[in-house]
Amino acid sequence: MTQLPNFSIKNSNSSPANTAEDPQVAPPKPKPKPPQQHPWLIVGLGNPGKKYNGTRHNVGFEMLDAIAEAEGIPINTVNFKALFGKGFIGNVPVMLAKPQTFMNASGESVGALVSYYKIPLKQVLVIFDDLDLPFAKLRLLPKGGHGGHNGMRSIIDRLKGSRDFPRLRIGIGRPPGKMDTANFVLRPFNKQEREELEFTFQHGIEAVRILVLEGKQIEVILEGFDKSAAYAKSAKAMEQLG
């Protein structure tokens, strides 16, 4: 048997593999990092201590507690003189705060939180009681003054006079007859008012979700227990913040 010669077939078009990196080929550019997503700071105003629990002046605390419960966010730490919690509404990071400085010094806590976490003012929502709104009505606005509310006055002062941050006002009505305003705001709600407030808090939670998730503001007016279906959520009421 004739032995065939050993040979290999070479491709004349091929060239030895070059393991060295071609100096003329630029390395791939790194992908740009997505812009940092700042959290929302949602603040409920009130006075600390059992003495003030359930009073009209503390309805901001109660609204914040309702938001925390609905979104599963524990408020169980203390940060910058506030009861504090971190979590999410949808996929948006939020921080919830209940200043413990007493109402008239709320700005000490809010100003420090805004400064430390570098939160844009358009993402600072303050929730507070309002004598000028009928009881159980809500109004969510993109900016405005303090309206004679000492907690809001303190916050605006600490934010160097800026009023360009959203606020959710909760109507507590005017004092009856000649009752002193200070006494009225420190009175607890009665049973019927409590029932109406449950509707108010549910509508407030929905309004805050719209604000945070869509970055839009919606003017919300709740007519009360008997007219809760009048909750306004029309497209015309929604405007870009700021």
Automatic annotation (TrEMBL):
UniProt biased composition (Pro residues): 25-37
From the UniProt entry, list the residue stretches annotated as the region Disordered.
1-39
Q: Which Gene3D superfamilies match?
A: Peptidyl-tRNA hydrolase
Q: What class of enzyme is it?
A: hydrolase
Q: Does the keyword tRNA-binding apply?
A: yes
Question: What InterPro entries does the database record attribute to this sequence?
Answer: Pept_tRNA_hydro, Pept_tRNA_hydro_CS, Pept_tRNA_hydro_sf
> What Enzyme Commission number(s) does the record list for this chain?
3.1.1.29
Keyword terms of this UniProt record: Hydrolase, RNA-binding, tRNA-binding
What's a Gene Ontology MF term here? Answer: peptidyl-tRNA hydrolase activity
Where along the chain is composition biased (Polar residues)?
A: 1-18
Which family is it part of? Belongs to the PTH family.
What is the name attached to this protein's record? Answer: peptidyl-tRNA hydrolase
| Source species | Corchorus olitorius
Organism classification: Eukaryota, Viridiplantae, Streptophyta, Embryophyta, Tracheophyta
